[in-house]
Amino acid sequence: MAKLPINTTLKTERCRSLTVLQELGEGGQGTVYKVDYDGRPMALKWYHENVFPGRQKQFLENLRNNIAHGTPHECFLWPLDVTEPSNGSIGYIMELRPPEYIVMTRFLLKQKFASFQVCADAMLHIVNAFRIMHNDGFSYQDLNDGNFFINPKTGDLLICDNDNVSYPGFNTGVVGKSRYMAPEVVLGQKLPDKASDRFSLALILFLLLCKSHPLEGAGATPPCLTPSIEKIIYGSNPVFIFDPQNDTNRPIRGVHTNAINMWPCLPVYLQDAFIKAFTKASMTCTNGIYGGPRVIEREWVDILSRFRSSIVPCPCGNQEFVNEEKYVCSVCGKPLPVANSLKLARYTMPAYPGAKILRGQLSNCGDDVAIEPVAEIIAAPNDPKVYGIRNASKETWRCITSTGEQRNLAPDEVCPVKTGIRADTGNGSFEII
Length: 433
Fold this sequence. Notes:
alpha+beta; Phosphorylase Kinase, domain 1; Transferase(Phosphotransferase), domain 1; six-stranded antiparallel β-sheet; 11 helices; 25% helix; globular
């Protein structure tokens, strides 16, 4: 059955019934429908006939394993139930995606984020979700621009196509999408795993920020991209477009404009992370080890949390990536709306309305709370030039003023942003300087 007619009814393995209501979209593996699932609006991914030749049994076993395990994180549109076979095909049930979530592919074209802070939030959600998933023992195996749906106003994330997720050594037959696979997978040296996920994850992050592929520059734009040439560009001889040791694949002016403009603006620590992710050592086999060392998710959480903290909006409309204590707009030349700085354990961040301290910036913590806001800078309602810091956590802080006076700050209470105030949040401390 290539497609399901509207009003088709099916049974599932969990003894539920569903009715097809509307076609939502079609991809390489199948078609997604809105369905009535025992009275609830849900989504059904229905596979094309013979999409898994000779391995449908194994693929179905993996799908059932994932359903039994349950979702590792709420942002995954995780399989919940499998249909009974019908005319040689099957499908699975998942939650519906709300319409305000936009596929990542569109962000690489014309769709914009509300701000760079929102883009950083989306990147943080991506790496933290994969950190939790990998800690659960899974690997995703097929990361590409069609997997991620992002709210452009908030950076909130949903991840689809989780039928490809599997445990180590379980071969679903899915190796990934061209241009997104790790070199060792392109060359057939390894099946997808956590390490190849991490390569693809870095690629996704680079695309979101720079709107250009990290391996596609002057040395990787042939007149015709044949399978053999593709294997060289992404497999046997990949070169990062900003590799400090190899300039043979630099971005082309007038073609890769976004990458050329964005790269010099990125903080050095973020540039270094991408260089580590796409250096020769990370993309080749060394002493029998494929693709190492790669940037792991915890590193990305730390780097992107710091990056988010460095993005300061200027009244002129520019969004400045600031260095520590150099709070001047590079466009209009005026001081940025920064009152003070917040001294954290590893670096200093500017204090401006909208700035947040995330739990992972203060100390080591659980994966599920690493990007949870602990503190937020707000402007006084009667004077926008006066800033306060709100306790955004559920814990009461112990604060010490510049005069040595001690007081507690309960959740949602606000203290002034003044030099010399120190706060112990119960999960780490910071000082206003």
